[in-house]
Amino acid sequence: MWISLLLKLYTVKVYLSSYRYSENNMTKLTFADTLKQYSIDIWQKILSHRFIMELSSDILPLNKFVFYLRQDHYFLEEFSRFLQSAKQKTSDNKMKEWLHSLYLSTINFEMEMQKQLLNSLAASASSPSNTTASYYEFFPCRTTLEYTSYLINTSSTGTFSEIVSVMAPCPWTYLEIAQKLSKIPIRNLQELAAVLFFR
Q1: For a Cys-Cys bond, which of 1, 37, 155, 162 suits 85, CB 3.0-4.6 Å?
Q2: Which CATH architecture best describes the domain 2-197?
Q3: Which pTM value belongs to this model?
């Protein structure tokens, strides 16, 4: 159960802190909402994915959690490159500043949090085969590789509007997942946060 608590905390903390969308901001995205409704079946499949269901039920296996962290770490490395490239595609200084702040948040907050989680997992591993080094092997699976390749290709050859359109679904769906998980009671959340992130 504790592994699900870690991931809940990670998901909620990262995406509710890094992407501070208010209800007002969300209602202004008329065109985006239209696109979301056009793909609502896929959207709902994301929110009801087995991984999310196991997570919300506190039955997520440890190996799935570690796999997720490794894949997300690889994604964030590529996403950082994507953001740096995207920044060069706009002349809007405010947008440049926002992209840069998102870049800093990614490398200094999200990736740092992952390192702390992986350190905690490695330290608690009981099997001799679960060495610390094994927790830091980041080999992308096919889906991760295809998505990150798509992001990098779009940031290199696409317009700025296309760049925004390919990056938006990721934080948006994570935001909704985080909002969903944040409504589920998490026992000892404050103690867990203190141990993992504020020591």
Answers
A1: 155
A2: Up-down Bundle (1.20)
A3: 0.74
